[in-house]
Write a structure and sequence with these properties.
The structure holds two protein chains of two kinds. By secondary structure, chain A is an all-alpha fold. In chain A, about 65% of the residues lie in helices and about 0% in strands. Chain A has three domains: about 10-60, no CATH class; about 150-265, no CATH class; about 330-550, Orthogonal Bundle (MetI-like fold). In chain A, strands 1-2 form a two-stranded antiparallel sheet. A two-stranded antiparallel sheet of chain A has the order 3-4. The chains are: A mainly alpha, B alpha/beta.
Chain lengths: ~550, ~375
């Protein structure tokens, strides 16, 4: 149809062009439709899309290393991890200040837990190092205070450090704290580092600013009234030990200049941070620890995904995990294989029942239907526990078989705590999902077709196989998809009756969510499971065709 | 996370002022989290009922989520809304929560009541104050129970941990927990490793393999449990000959249900259960939580709990006060894992070791199970 006539555009009753008027009506309709589905859309978005996206992000996200060690990670860029040497002093120096702040904020143990997934022992290394990190600073603090008592006073420090021009430094350090703690660090400090001090003593200014931010914002104290952290003394020692600054310090005119010059002239402890960390925990001197930190320092990591397929990220690239730690590929394979077996047994058991349901007189069929649905209405946990009672070695089935003489009392069948148990219990639990779509499809197949086939000379089998069965295939397809996809993510039944060789990948995901707290790995495993399901669905569509699936 | 010292200081003031300061700035309801079942009931009887009787305005809600407490607290923390006030966890979980910054650090002497004789809380609890956040409550043990009627004729009842690995003398199924902790220690002990060397050996690849190889000798005769109630049920049904579980579960099966089960205390592994207070509570709720914890962990209350369940009180000063079972009337002292007759050969769960090695060894253990 054309929207114009010979005399110009076709007009609606209100004089507008018909096309525009129709468009408006259509738009209104669409909006109304959208408003109607809005609750559902919102619900799906909130409970489905957002969690899945956040799971995807979590499976690669690895911010914790660089937010906890913001100085160390960039400093490590200059270190060549393949030489077999531990990083240079500069890296350890940064590590000290990073660890000091992290232990003030109690964040260092989180990083230890994270890295412990990759290299066993790092959890306690970070915990113990964080606990005694003060000791390193105290070496310098004691030395400095011995030389000049004024450095014991918080007020004196404040006088030396405070001034104007250091806003950029405050902003930078504040951002670091915010990254570290995920909390807002906004607020007036009552302190600004002086630009002259920043130029003269950069490490000290940074450490003192860190101290000031935490003292004011988190502890809610006044900077000038508090004694600086041990890290500030260590920073001062670092600055004073640097020979390139000696001349500038000698010419310094600002507050506390004489005290600084006195310190600069005095002998300060020569303790290196490399030695100090080796003292805290000897593992800091091991190159593999540093390689782990190096490998996991980027913001995003493929590490969790590699672990999910029994590989690991090492300094030499991706490698297979040792044989005695390989688990996940096997579990994925088992999950798929057993889901397939369960689906097949559901078809075999469900098909005749669905046929009976569809072909018996309504009265009898209804009773049968209730029998199918009854277990469906019983709690999953109750049904699984009931299977436990039936399947165990002293259970109902074994007792019966022994009583009937089929099985010797000494060799009772092992029906649970293995894959047999999982298959039996899950087939029973998922059977209604097979029967119901099959039944609704069979209900639509006219019985006359079978009769017609037989009257044309087909045997019972031919009539069924050539005429009836092809028409019921869409029901099998729908039931199989339902059962298979439900089975692949099953958790509770394998957990209760699966023993060791009857557990699924979901049991491992649950373990990582609730026990090991390795949510990144759980997310990666979950993502792989999701992709597997989608891939199988796609394959199914290619082979059988999703149009051939009918739920009724 | 922006509270800490100032509030703790105010708290200390509030506490020393006693009930005077009480209800003014304390929340009037509180959610306690525990394990459910008989254990939670013993806590209700010994702790929360008397507490509510003393503070009539307080409403106590119980949640039975301790098994997932660590994951749930982490999720609550990420969501920024903590709905629990005091949480019962095992010490290993408390250590983990402390590491994750999810549990409040506690100064025992400031927060907990001293013993009646004036001994400070830190001395009274002693080594049981594991980590910086954990407030111990009970000592429980994981140990073995066996069917007395399944002991072969002419053989002594099992009384040595290595009897578990001796299928020739004691044929039958065993139940072990589906995790490496405890099992690998027992395996090494029965593979000739001296008790003091167990963790040094376990820290090595070879040691871990040795433990799994020992477990491999009985693997076909083991049912692996994951809930504490499994072993008593398996024993009661005659599914297994012997199995490990928590001693309180065995006590209930033997004394309360009269099952033909015997206790084998050898090489029992002591573990601790206690409270933590989640990080991030409001001042009022924190005040209430601290007030409750101070009450619930005093010498008398800890001793009272032992009337209802056979777990040992964590305070030294509570031990002499342990009396008879509230309904059965039997003397509870001899059923405590800490009783000298039961504690001839014991093991203390090594928290530091397992915090480091749990994921590593568990990975190997699960891979071994899947073979």
């Amino acid at each position: 149809m054309s929207d114009t006539t010979g005399s110009g555009p076709m007009l609606a009753a209100d004089g507008r062009p018909l096309k525009e008027s129709l468009g408006r009506a259509l738009r209104r309709q669409k909006l109304r439709a959208l408003a109607l589905i809005a609750p559902l859309l919102l619900f799906v978005l909130l409970t489905f899309v957002i969690p899945i996206v956040s799971m995807l992000i979590r499976s690669v996200e690895n911010e914790i290393v660089e937010t906890t060690l913001p100085g160390t990670v960039p400093a490590m860029a200059a270190w060549d991890s393949s030489t077999g040497e531990i990083p240079p002093e500069d890296v350890f120096q940064n590590l000290f200040f990073d660890m000091f702040n992290a232990s003030e904020a109690k964040e260092h143990t989180k990083l230890g837990t994270r890295l412990n997934y990759e290299n066993t022992g790092l959890a306690s290394m970070f915990r113990t190092s964080g606990r005694s990190i003060d000791d390193i600073g105290e070496v310098f603090q004691d030395a400095i205070e011995d030389i000049d008592e004024r450095w014991e006073e918080g007020a004196f420090w404040f006088e030396v450090m405070n001034g104007a021009g250091g806003d950029a430094l405050v902003a930078e350090r504040r951002a670091r704290w915010e990254d570290l703690t995920d909390d807002s660090m906004a607020g007036d400090l009552g302190f600004t580092p002086s630009q002259a001090i920043i130029d003269l003593l950069p490490n000290t200014a940074a450490a003192y600013t860190d101290f000031a931010i935490w003292t004011v914002i988190d502890d809610e104290d006044v900077v000038a009234e508090e004694d600086p952290w041990e890290a500030v003394y260590a920073a001062l020692a670092v600055d004073l030990r640097d020979p390139s600054r000696t001349a500038a310090i000698a010419g310094y005119q600002g507050a506390g200049a004489d005290a600084l010059q006195a310190l600069s002239a005095a002998e300060l402890p020569g303790l290196t941070f490399t030695e100090a960390f080796a003292e805290l925990d000897e593992d800091w001197g091991k190159v593999d620890v540093w390689q782990t930190i190096e490998v996991y320092s980027p913001t995003y990591t493929p590490g969790y995904f590699l672990n999910s397929v029994d590989r690991e990220l090492t300094i030499d690239g991706v490698q297979a995990r040792p044989e005695n730690e390989q688990l996940y590929v096997k579990l994925f394979g088992r999950t798929l294989w057993m889901s397939l077996i369960i689906t097949t047994s559901c078809i075999i058991l469900g098909y005749p029942i669905a046929w009976l349901l569809a072909n018996l007189p309504v009265r009898t069929a209804n009773v049968l239907m209730i029998l199918v649905l009854l277990p469906f209405w019983t709690s999953l946990l109750v049904r699984t526990s009931a299977w436990k009672v039936l399947l165990q070695q002293q259970g109902v089935i074994n007792e019966l078989l022994v009583w009937l003489g089929f099985v010797d009392d000494a060799n009772r069948l092992i029906l649970m705590n293995n894959s047999t148990g999982t298959i039996i219990a899950m087939t029973h639990i998922l059977l209604p999902f097979m029967i119901l779509p099959l039944y609704s499809v069979m209900k639509t197949i006219p019985p006359t077709y079978l009769r017609a086939a037989k009257s044309l000379g087909a045997t019972n089998w031919t009539a069924f196989w050539r005429v009836y069965f092809p028409q019921s295939v869409p029901g099998i397809g729908a039931g199989s998809i339902l059962v298979f996809i439900l089975a692949i993510g099953y958790y509770i039944t394998p957990e209760i009756v699966g023993g060791t060789d009857g557990v699924f990948i979901s049991n491992r995901i649950a373990y990582h969510i609730s026990r090991s707290l390795n949510w990144g790995l759980a997310a990666a495993l979950g993502t792989i499971l999701l992709v597997l399901v989608m891939a199988l669905y796609w394959l199914y569509d290619r082979i059988v065709g999703i149009d051939n699936v009918k739920l009724g | 996370m922006n509270f800490k010292k100032p509030i703790l200081a105010t708290m200390a003031l509030g506490l020393s002022a006693g009930s005077l300061a009480a209800d003014g700035h304390m929340a009037s309801d509180m959610t306690l989290v525990s394990w459910g079942g008989a254990y939670q009931q013993s806590q209700i009887n010994a702790y929360s009922d008397p507490y509510v009787a003393m503070n009539p305005g307080v409403t106590v809600t119980w949640d039975e989520s301790s098994a997932e407490a660590v994951a749930k607290l982490r999720a609550m923390n990420e969501a920024g809304s903590i709905t629990w006030d005091v949480v019962d966890v095992v010490a290993a979980d408390a250590l983990r929560l402390c590491d994750e910054g999810l549990a409040l650090e506690i100064d025992a002497d400031e927060v907990l009541a001293p013993a009646p004789d004036g001994t400070s809380a830190s001395d009274d609890f002693g080594d049981l104050l594991v980590g910086d956040c954990f407030i111990p409550q009970i000592v429980y043990s994981t140990t073995f129970g066996y069917r007395t009627d399944m002991v072969p004729a002419g053989v002594d009842a099992p009384n040595d941990i290595c009897d578990v690995f001796d299928l020739a003398t004691y044929p039958g199924m065993r139940a072990l927990e589906k995790r490496p902790i405890n099992n690998v220690e027992w395996a090494l002990l029965c593979d000739g490793v001296a008790k003091d060397d167990v963790y040094d050996v376990l820290a090595t690849e070879e040691g871990q393999e040795q433990a799994l190889a020992k477990l491999d000798t009985i693997k076909d005769s083991v049912i692996w449990w994951s809930a504490g109630a499994d072993t008593p049920q398996l024993l009661a049904d005659g599914e297994i000959f012997m199995g490990s579980t928590y001693n309180g579960r065995l006590f209930a099966a033997i004394e309360e249900q009269g099952q033909p089960i015997g206790m084998m205390w050898d090489a029992q592994v002591f573990d601790l259960d206690g409270w933590i207070i989640p990080e991030g509570l409001s001042d009022e709720r924190l005040a209430r939580a601290l007030d409750f914890v101070r009450f619930a962990t005093d010498t008398q209350r800890l001793a009272d709990q032992a009337k209802y369940i056979s777990y040992g009180p964590a305070r030294l000063s509570s031990a002499p006060l342990v009396g008879n079972h509230a309904t059965l009337g039997i003397d509870m002292a001899q059923h405590m894992p800490t009783d000298p007759n039961n504690a001839a050969n014991t093991f203390l769960y090594n928290y530091e070791f397992w915090a480091d090695y749990r994921d590593d060894i568990d990975g190997k253990f699960q891979a071994w199970l899947a073979q």
